[in-house]
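Our working data are protein records whose layout never changes between entries. Instead of coordinates, the fold is spelled out as a row of discrete tokens. Here is such a record, shown just as it appears in the course material:
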Amino acid sequence: MSKIPVTVITGFLGAGKTSLLNHLIKKHDEKKFVIIENEFGEENIDSELVTNIDNENLFELTNGCICCNLNTELYLVLENLIKSTSNFNHLLIETTGIADPGNILAAFISDPGIKSKFELDSVICLVDAANAEQDLENEEVLNKQIAISDTLVLNKTDLSSADNIERLYSKIKEINPTACIHRAQQSKLDKQQLLDVYAYKPQKIYQFLFSVDGMEKPENKHKHSIENYCFKSSRALDQMKFGGWLDAFLQFNSDTIYRVKGILNIAGLDNRILLQSVHTQIQATVGRPWETDESRESKMVFIGKNLNREVIDRNLLELCD
């Protein structure tokens, strides 16, 4: 079967994740969804759970979608879905409000078995316009959810003032300057395309890094702890040295480095290498060849907390030929 696109819905407690999930199911009746609930909360999916399919954790909904509860390791749940006789064409995962979605994303980036069957489509983070400003000050996980998402939905705008909304918009734009930001009431987005955007395709790294050039300079510090730092160098990187450094760097900083995206100029290679990581999991793919007349420049964006830019710069420059 062709790869199944995976959309992850995240956001802090009460942001409207389940409501968005319900809207997506109703809006896209052409799809046969599988829904993984990281935790069944007080507000379950609208469709009634009616038929037990393979085991006690896998159900069929009245609209033909499949639903299961993620109460075991993710790869086991996905393995059971693959083995099931149900014909589905999109996977929706709703995380808990206090969950770091990076652990879920890492499985789809690094596990060969999962990657052969599933492909990350996008990560959507809902932000509660009425409460997020205070939550951003107190809840590190909300900052992390915003930082590693590619689509942000500023929800419940009807419950907050225009001034508060604009202030919050600016804050989340600082945390994640490259994400698409939509505004919504009751998690409803009628015209915006949220599915089948494939924001995690390696080719999208080109588009991401093009937008990075407009980011604020490193000396402009923000009040929150999430930072985005772009390293650039026209000197070629040594492949073996860089691979060893990146693996050690991510392992050592697993709690503070959330994502890395980049295009690498590797010594001796005629093609660009497209890099992305979530936490400690790394994915590197071969990109298009370097043009004869273009500058071979490595660009890497580090997204995380309290980044030591000087150390990153110094270490990477030492890895160049």
Observations:
- The domain at 204-318 is CATH 3.30.1220.10 (Hypothetical Protein Yjia; Chain: A;domain 2).
